[in-house]
Specification:
It contains five helices and six strands. It is α/β, with parallel strands linked by helices. The model has no long low-confidence stretch (mean pLDDT about 90). Keywords: CBS domain, Kinase, Transferase.
Length: about 140
């Protein structure tokens, strides 16, 4: 019998297919909301740096709305996460999942040679594990 590797052992770069969605450094939270909807993503990078330092997620947008603030007047950079967690493109799905759990985050930035190549979400990882479970039922 041939051993089939578990989904957790594949490189995280295999699930970074979507292009990174970005907003300008001076964008508002309303701009972020538009980018999330149009890009069909859960988080966007703020600014155009090759190695970004700020990320705004759906939850950040929801927090602004829940606080009663006007998303059109709140700057994205003011609500962005700035302590970003990165992994290398060769990191395994399992390693990325553990890293995300250890940092209580839903998005991890994936780099190759110091350049951002994608963002992987908890939803992406769940899809990989779900597909693996479906193809390898107990």
């Amino acid at each position: 019998m041939t051993d089939i590797p578990s989904a957790g052992s594949i490189p995280v770069s295999e699930v970074t297919g979507d292009p990174v969605v970005r907003v300008a450094a001076d964008a508002s939270v309303a701009d972020v909301a538009q980018a999330i909807i149009h890009g069909e993503v859960g988080a966007v990078v703020v600014g155009s740096d090759e190695r970004p330092s700020a990320l705004v997620s759906e939850r950040d947008v929801a927090a602004v709305v829940a606080a009663g603030d006007d998303p059109a007047t709140v700057r994205a950079i003011d609500v962005a996460s700035k302590n970003l967690i990165w992994c290398d493109a060769d990191t395994t799905i399992d390693q990325a999942a553990v890293r995300m759990m250890n940092h209580y985050i839903r998005h991890i930035l994936v780099e190759r040679s110091g350049v951002l190549i994608g963002i992987v979400s908890a939803r992406d990882l769940l899809g990989v594990y779900g597909a693996d479970a479906k193809s390898n039922p107990l």
